[in-house]
Design brief:
It is a single chain. It is globular and about 70 Å long. It starts with 20 loop residues before the first helix and ends in a 25-residue tail after the last helix. It is 43% helix and 12% strand. The strands form three sheets. The protein has a five-stranded parallel beta sheet with strand order 2-3-6-1-7, with helices on one face. A two-stranded antiparallel ribbon has the order 4-5. A two-stranded antiparallel ribbon has the order 8-9. The protein contains 14 helices and nine strands. It has three domains: 147 residues, P-loop containing nucleotide triphosphate hydrolases (Rossmann fold), CATH 3.40.50; 68 residues, Helicase, Ruva Protein, domain 3 (Orthogonal Bundle); 74 residues, Orthogonal Bundle (Arc Repressor Mutant, subunit A), CATH 1.10.10. One of its GO terms (biological process) is DNA recombination. It catalyses: ATP + H2O = ADP + phosphate + H(+). InterPro entries: AAA+_ATPase, AAA_lid_4, DNA_helicase_Holl-junc_RuvB, P-loop_NTPase, RuvB-like_N, RuvB_wg_C, WH-like_DNA-bd_sf, WH_DNA-bd_sf. This is Holliday junction branch migration complex subunit RuvB.
Length: 359
């Protein structure tokens, strides 16, 4: 499957990592403004702090920065912090928005000295624009082609020193010549529950939500290691507490609220449980092919593969094998089911008959 054609998280998923307009507006208010306020990602934060402090002491523009990791971990927030720490303006765009080299040339030619250019989903930029970016990053120069055919000429355009901050969810799709031109590369890891508790407490304070330690821990434990999801769950629990409780978020209130929104104690939502339920109840734990599994849950193949499976695999509830998708013992335990004898197999004839349900 081409990643460029992969669907984003379905918009009605409370635990989806994609951000809609409401999320973006709230996140803007909740984002830390300084590196010292940024919670988690200790290694990346310390390394980036050295890069920025050294650049400020030299009076120079900071090196280009590449941030990789899953959605919702703080790549955009860090790019804004970089601009703030360097006392520089920031220009925000994305790879899919740059389809022609001319699009990139227009952006680069309007940058001011020291400005930060944040390029989200940089791996989805077009190849001609990518090749123009090589020279811009290294020599702060681009060649603008004027005319067509034999009469075409290249006009060199000098650029002021700037800092490119690239963000990607798929660092492996970046061509090596582009990846090697970044002076600093940071990989964003999923957050530990204790770090997410701090995120929830901080966001609750900014949203003026009364929350105790147990309530924050309950929300953090269901947030899939992602601050964006933690903030989203906090807002929905706040709504529940406001309407059906006394407005304060406790463990019991958070648990009841997230039960209403179908987010279980491990962070699985309706789609995740539907995939596991089909795999276990209909196919005996697998192996079963992705297309068959998608039909069983009434979703597109790409939705199951790109939206549900990554978290299930990371949680150790599902495994991808050459023969198809297989449920792990933890999946049976999570749904309160007993695995069939001899390790399962499909309900259509056992594990030896994979022709009907192969990948």
């Amino acid at each position: 499957m081409n990643w460029d054609d992969a669907p984003a998280d379905t918009p009605d998923r409370l635990v989806g990592s994609a951000a809609d307009r409401e999320d973006q507006a709230v996140e803007a208010a909740l984002r830390p403004k300084e590196l010292d306020e940024f919670i988690g990602q200790e290694r990346v934060r310390q390394q980036l702090d050295l890069v920025l402090k050294a650049a400020r002491q030299r009076g120079a523009t900071a090196d280009h920065v590449l941030l990789s990791g899953a959605p919702g971990l703080g790549k955009t927030t860090l790019s804004m912090i970089i601009a703030a720490e360097m006392s520089a303006p920031i220009r925000i765009t994305s790879g899919p928005a740059i389809q022609h080299a001319g699009d990139l040339a227009a952006i680069l030619s309007s940058l001011t000295e020291g400005e930060v250019l944040f390029l989200d989903e940089i791996h989805r930029m077009s190849r001609p624009a990518e090749e123009m970016l090589y020279m811009a990053m290294e020599d702060f120069r681009v060649d603008v082609i004027v005319g067509k055919g034999p009469g075409a000429t290249a006009i060199p355009l000098e650029l002021p020193p700037f800092t490119l901050v690239g963000a990607t969810t798929r660092a492996g799709l970046l061509p090596p010549p582009l990846r090697d031109r970044f002076g600093f590369t940071g990989h964003m890891e999923f957050y530990a529950p204790a770090e997410l508790e701090r995120v929830v407490h901080r966001s609750a304070g900014l949203l003026d939500v009364a929350i105790d330690t147990d309530g924050a821990a309950e929300i953090a434990g269901r947030s899939r290691g992602t601050p964006r999801i933690a903030n989203r769950l906090l807002r929905r629990v706040r709504d529940y507490a406001q309407v059906r409780a006394d407005g304060a978020v406790t463990r019991e209130t958070a648990a009841r609220a997230l039960e209403v929104y179908e987010v279980d104690a491990r962070g699985l939502d309706r789609l995740d449980r539907a995939v596991l339920h089909a795999l276990l109840k209909l196919f005996g734990g697998g192996p079963v092919g992705l297309s068959t599994l998608a039909v069983a849950v009434g979703e597109e193949r790409e939705t199951v593969e790109e939206v549900a499976e990554p978290f299930l695999v990371r949680e150790g509830l599902l495994a991808r094998t050459p023969r198809g998708r297989v449920a792990t013992p933890a999946a049976w335990s999570h749904l309160g089911l007993v695995p069939p004898p001899q390790g399962g197999g499909t309900s259509q004839g056992g594990p030896g008959q994979t022709g009907l349900f192969g990948a």
